[in-house]
Amino acid sequence: MPTDGRRAWASLRLRGSAGWASAALALVLAYPANTRADGPIRWSEHSRFDFLPVNLTHRVDGMQLGFWNVADRLDGFQLAYGCTQIARQLNGVQLGLMSNWSDQVRGVQIGGLVNVAGNLKGLQIGLINATKDSSGLSLGLINWVSNGRLMFEGMGSSLGFADASFRSGNRWNQYTYTVGTNLARRAVRVGGGLGGHVALPWGSLDLDAFAFLVGGGSDVKDSQTNKTRFSKTGAQAELRLSTSFQI
Question: What are φ and ψ of residue 7, in 5° steps?
Fold first, then answer.
């Protein structure tokens, strides 16, 4: 590997990502700084449009379209129709059928399975979203902010459920995963919520929207509306406004 490549490689490791993701960046940085196509593989120092199945580029000002895409810096659009794609510094959009990896995200990551970002300032949409630092929003089944707010809590519901929850989030939004039980009705429920968080001088204020799957129990009707509040199997939705105080 050339000296410049080793120096750059030493400073470009993706924080918290897998070793093979970093190794992919090493391939790009080690290759001579000229454009070349080796069969289905395109190596390039600077490109506006990469379209081969495998695209390995230092800097992209435009678009990468391929089965596997790797870029040191990407200003534009990265689309992978197969394997994982990597952009150390992303200013734009990553759209992948499998997963997206980036150290610095200023834009949008949309992945079929997993999105990973070192620092997120934008939006993630995927089955699993993981960030180290985040001032953006993640939408998925599992959302994790490792340097954000992490807490366990217990809460009661007006429907008679006692819930235990785990919460992860940043300064402004949060993701909550909950399991609860209603002993009187012999029912259990699991669910998750997405909400907003506001820090106050005396504590905090939270507004969360929850969706639950409910199992067991018996039908309960509201005495005023005569409508079923939950049944043996079904779904529930809740909107919670809560506050906390510092002691």
Answer: -65, -45
Residue 3 has pLDDT above 60, yes or no: no
- Compute the distance between CA of residue 101 and CA of residue 1 in angstroms, rounded to an integer: 24
Q: Which of 189, 156, 193, 154 is nearest to 177 (CA)?
A: 193
Phi, psi of 4 (to 5 degrees): -65, -35
How far apart are the C-alpha atoms of 171 and 161, rounded to whole Å? 28
Question: Is 70 exceeded by the pLDDT of residue 20?
Answer: no
pLDDT at 35: 54
Instruction: Answer for the pair 211, 240: CB distance below 8 angstroms, yes or no.
Output: no
Render pLDDT for 145-187 as a digit per residue (tens, 0 to 9): 888 888 888 888 777 889 999 988 888 888 999 999 988 888 8
- Inform me whether the pLDDT recorded for 77 exceeds 80: yes
Short-list 234, 232, 158, CA closest to 191: 234
Sign of CA dihedral 32, 36, 38, 41: positive
Contacts of 217 (CB under 8 A, 6+ apart): 182, 185, 186, 187, 230, 231, 232
Closest CA to 54 of 43, 1, 46, 45: 43
Furthest C-alpha separation in the chain: 77
For residue 10, pLDDT beyond 60: no
Burial 157-177 (b: 16+ CB within 10 A, else e): bebbbebebebbbbeebbbbb
| Residue 24 φ then ψ, to 5° | -65, -40
The token duo for 204 is 């905090």
